[in-house]
Amino acid sequence: MTKRTPIIAGNWKMHNTLAESAALIKGLTENFENKQNAEIIVAPSYTSLAKVAELCKGTAIKVAAQDVHWEDKGAFTSAVSPVQAKDAGATHTIIGHSERRSVFGDTDEILNKKVAAALRHGLTVIFCVGETLAQRETGETLQVIEAQLKNGLKDFTAEQLNGLIIAYEPVWAIGTGKTATPEQAQEVHAAIRQYLATAYGNDFAQATRILYGGSVKDSNVDEIMAKEDVDGALVGGQSLIAEKFRRIINFN
Ligand code: PEP
Predict the structure, then answer these.
(1) Ligand 1 near 96 CB (within 6 A)
(2) Which band of pLDDT confidence, cut at 50, 70 and 90, is reported for residue 42?
(3) What pTM, to 2 d.p., does this model score?
(4) 215 CA closest ligand 1 atom index
(5) What homologous superfamily does CATH list for 58-237?
(6) Which residue ranges make up each domain of the chain?
């Protein structure tokens, strides 16, 4: 079976000034041993992106944008293009975070254009999918996730999507303190891998890292990471606290 390098990613959302961002990076890098050799990614606000990328040079930490626009430039007030994100030092970008979908109205069609833009500029995409509580309760979880994958990644080949990272983030578990059980996470991760195998072939499916996100904490990361198809975590709240995030990176 393919050995997949684990990824622990932190989504800082709309938090941290420049000084706070710098302090957090210091807290993550000083005297730190990355015991699992995990790939570490942080996604700061755009205002801190260049600074964080500069501070992470020569460390194991890679930097992601939290989103990118689908155009390279133009009259799109407040948006940030993949060209700008890359220029600021991002190597990755999150696309389709549930807050982008629900608060900012990013549809599957928009997300598909954003994926295209990111890939065009060589940014590695962390593509988020997840069901709401109502969808889970009516038994639609797997259908919803398959549709998000199908529509968001529409028209790309396995070759184009090479390196893609998927994050399964049940909407009801994000920032709520509620976490999917390891079994619930495994069930959806296995279904995602099965979908990827059908759509893009088994090699692609086996190589693709699927992260779990939704109230991952230092106290629950070990049991979630123990599941076969869970290849990492996308962490919100606890990625803002160096000591907690360090423990999550060094999951057992
Ligand atoms: C997230 O923002 O992607 C997330 C999972 O947040 P939290 O860990 O705070 O639930």
Answers:
(1) no
(2) very high
(3) 0.97
(4) 10
(5) Aldolase class I (3.20.20.70)
(6) 58-237
